[in-house]
């Protein structure tokens, strides 16, 4: 594939990226606005509760507290959704970066393959020219020997001996091909294979999460324990399919709470 084709394919894949990023950022801003509005409502309800707590009945207090708690839970859901969108946006950009790295590695491998192929072809061409010169020398010696005197025959035999030495040198040149093959074999292992390119390592500075100690990907959920050492978990690693309602604690924090 030529450089132009690699560039064209990559630009095609980037065509919808700005639209997707704009959509995600717009949704994140909308969720943030909703969460901020809820927090203002919660502040107002909390002030009202504190002012009237002494005059409220027990039932009224409970009702007000449940209302405030409900608003807090809703604000937390907005925050969690915003975090999920941020993770998806990061993965979206990271996918395109990996695609570019993969295409660059494949393109570099193709360039090296073409360079090695040209070197091999040039060596074989030089080898064939050497054989042709040796063959022409033998035939011309035979023609001169047929109509020559004994003195000329002696000279011809002397020339043929020299030609024979040249022939031995020509035979030795047939070892060029194995040497070229060995040189190619020594270079090829260093060329990234397309299958290996897909397994390129992630950014070593990227933080890890969850019980599996892997980077963020897919659906994730945050532990409601503010002191949780891990904080974020992949749905699959903690046996979740959908986000549970209310508070959720990771397996470690759940076990610690039971002690």
Provide a brief overview of the structure.
By secondary structure, this protein is mostly helical. The chain is built from seven helices and two strands; from the N terminus they run ααααααββα.
Structure, explained:
With 259 residues, the chain is mostly helical. It has two domains: 3-200; 201-259, Zinc/RING finger domain, C3HC4 (zinc finger) (Herpes Virus-1). 71% of the residues lie in helices and 2% in strands. It has helices at residues 3-14, 17-52, 58-146, 150-172, 176-187, 194-197, 251-258, and strands at residues 220-222, 232-234. The chain has a two-stranded antiparallel ribbon with strand order 1-2. The longest helix has 89 residues, at 58-146. The model is unreliable at 163-200 (pLDDT under 50). Zn(2+) 1 binds at residues 210, 212, 234, 237. One of its GO terms (cellular component) is nucleus. It is found in: Nucleus.
Oligomer: single chain
Instruction: Report the principal-axis shape.
Output: elongated
Low-confidence stretches: 163-200
**Contiguous helical run count:** 7
- Per DSSP E runs of 2 or more residues, the count of β-strands stands at 2
The radius of gyration is 39 Å
